[in-house]
Amino acid sequence: MKSVVFAFVLAAAALAANAQGDKWVIGQSVPLTGSNAAFGKDIRDGAKAYFAHVNSRGGVQGKQIELVSLDDKNDRKQAAANTKTLLEEKNPLALFGYASATLSLDAIPQAEKADVAFFAPFSGANPVRVNNPVLFTMRASYGEEMEKILNFWMSLGLKRVTVVHYEDEVGKQNFEVVQKYLQKINLVPQALPLKRNVPITKVEVDALLAQQPDLILHTILSGAAATFQKQLVEMGRIVPTSSLSFIGADQFITAAGASASGVSITQVVPNPSSQQVPVVRECAKAIADSGITTPMNSTQLEACIAAKTLVEGIRRAKAPVSARTVLAALSNLGTYDLGGYKVAFSSGAHHGSKFVDLAMVTRDGRLLSR
Fold it and tell me: Which family does it belong to (predicted)?
């Protein structure tokens, strides 16, 4: 009888270890249609390209990696539903690359309950900066980004700052970050709150101009920011404008066209054209090999860097590899040099990078680091 029980236990353990089958599944909810689809597709494509690069070399820990991306249409409720589907039906090693803090809010508690890493959300907002055993970020906080922007513009004597933000939990917190910074130098920002996923009209543009800003600080999506910028340029109203990296620089430049010239945007990864940086070269090749014919952009690069870091976590996970052993490996990753770009994780520190650069859009649509 004991031998039967022992055999059953071994079989159950083997079944659990092989629940992922012949592939390691990475789950992702991301906007592939709707108002932020270009950004979502770049996140997916950058990660998918690196996973394909790893797979072409035999995979990791004996298996290929499969990225399962579900479309959330930039809708918080759909992202929550997609997360539930991924966790219950796909048994992922990790959840990866959600496109915003808003889309992550209801997903993180599900990941925590399942003991699955929630890795590299594309946001530096406060809700994804909390201490959580399953949450890992790969980018600087929005506070660090805003400090970079405001240090530059305040040094030039600008005083009237209007923050364009969404009228929701995350958007209000972004405004408060600017508010706290400016309080230190006895300045008070103005706010222009917007409803998420609602088109920008002349009403919003006029409301912005009525505040007579010296500086416009966007914490909104690329499409909305581009609409503001195009209308302001058409009206001949040139106002210094900056944006957080959340905008998606390349998506904004594409949407705004020639009107994007002069806008400054924070970057949380090296310039994607910096071929002297090894990880930039590696990711550019992986993306080109995946069939993408346009030059790599900063969103794709960030996704590729995050994917490479996650693969390293899988590589270091103890056998039998599972979501829990990957979680443990990431928590003990230490300082990891990806090739000219470093991240660091420990059991008490899950925010891997503080890198921030401020770049300006040139007349020919390139990003030039300041």
Answer: Belongs to the leucine-binding protein family.
